Amino acid sequence: MTPDYVSFTLEKVTSHRDVDMVWDKCLRVIQENIPDQSYKTWFEPIRPLRLHGKVLTIQVPSQFFYEWLEDNYVHLLRKALDYSIGRDGMLEYSIIVDTGNEKHQPLTMNVPTAKTPQTARPDNFGTDLRNANNQVKDQDSLQLDTYLNGNYSFDNFIEGDCNRLARSAGFAVAQRPGLTSFNPLMVYGGVGLGKTHLVQAIGNYIRNHFNDKLVLYVSSEKFTNQFINSIRNNTLQEFTDFYMKVDVLVIDDVQFLSGKEKTQDTFFHIFNHLHQLGKQIVMTSDRPPRELQGLQDRLLSRFKWGLTADLQTPDFETRIAIIQKKLQSEGINIDYDVIEYVAHSVNSNVRELEGVIISLMAQASLTRREIDVELAKNTLRNIVMDEEKEVTIDTIQEIVADYFEISIADLKSKSRKKENVYPRQLAMFLAKEYTDLPLKSIGYHFGGRDHSTVIHSIQSIHELMGNDSDVEETVQKLRSYFK
Questions:
Q1: I need a surface site. Which of 77, 99, 120, 316 has the fewest CB within 10 A?
Q2: Phi and psi, residue 260, nearest 5°
């Protein structure tokens, strides 16, 4: 029987205005019974579509959204329908179905809510999701900040050809989170190239410029551990609800979700929910999506929806800029030839480059020496090494010079004497074989020669090895020193 406080005839409610009135009555009941954040997350995105007789149709963003409402708020929806329509009122969902091809088609499902609601878990996880300290609740500690490191910013992220696309896309996302076509933004690259720095810079920029946006940075390992704990503690609903309240989700190293099927299932639903509500998703990986193994196809397809940008090994000019920026931040000035030497000698990644600078400053402080090229050489000799045996360009020059009984200065000189040219060519040949240095850097270590001279030297040794057994034997002897 329709309650006395419903003062209109349901069969005549057909206009859009009337539909909105009925849904507003429902929302009034709902808002009085759940926390504000839960209301914003689960009911503000809903759109009332139509009212036929006693059947109210509402549109929800996804299948998962519908399932969550039915599993967690069926009792509240029933109460709202009783108030706005009557005990024989029915609810119909119009669900936006993801077909996997980036197109969304509405699917209508007739779902009555007259079933007896099960005992629901109290919806209190994340009720203080936002507070004065911008803290969020967590499955492990129940209280934490956004995991963002304030030292990571766009100002101290050095831009170069190696990272220009990723940095530009990241800054665009930071300025308009959820509103660009870069959603999700996937940043990939090797170890120590600045992935974490860039995505945390995005998070810090948004947090500092959008007070109403909740930003959460989390590693995939942390996400997995939280998921496992939620299963162990029977709090999976709270875990999912927690992540679905986030405005900007930054998840690091998604490749570590590989093989974790249940975790991937949950992340898939969270990803869909956030994406369909226009929330920003940023991810990092050590390789492009097409090379990720052990991840579900439906996840990989979504990773490709936005923009995938790579971070490459920094070129020489970018390495120079990184060193100068690091020294500037530490308030230290050193000669440019030292900076140039370090930039030529360390070309693996940004992390190792910064580590060398820190070690160089420490050595200078402990030994009370000025930072010069000789100190840089000694420092690099203790840091830059292979896992099995150190092979640096300095080592190669020392071995070749000793073998031919000449000085290292002769190897680097402009002399065209045969007794110097042949050892110099051999040293360049071995430098190319045993180090990862580019030709330009190899030439730098041999008196500032250009890359064409290095190429000529390498080709000359190759030809001599094929035509002269003595040269082949000499090369093999020199190689034995590096084994």
A1: 99
A2: -95, 85
Q: What are phi and psi of 138, to 5 degrees?
A: -140, 150
Which residue type does 459 have? Q
* CA-closest candidate to residue 55, choices 100, 117, 113: 113
Task: Look up residue 216 and give its two tokens.
Answer: 């959460």
Distance set, CA 18 to CA 89, 111, 221 (Å): 15, 21, 49
Dump the DSSP string for 299-367.
Answer: HHHHHTSSEEEEE----HHHHHHHHHHHHHHHT----HHHHHHHHHH--S-HHHHHHHHHHHHHHHHHH
pLDDT band at 134 (very low <50, low <70, confident <90, very high): very low
Instruction: Indicate if the pLDDT at residue 267 is higher than 90.
Output: yes
Strands 90-98 and 104-110: antiparallel
How many other CB atoms sit within 10 Å of the CB of residue 265?
14
Helices and strands, number each (H, E), in the chain: 20, 9
User: Using CA atoms, how far apart are residues 3 and 12, in angstroms rounded to an integer?
Assistant: 17
pLDDT at residue 343, as a whole number: 85
Q: Which residue has the tokens 């996937």?
A: 186
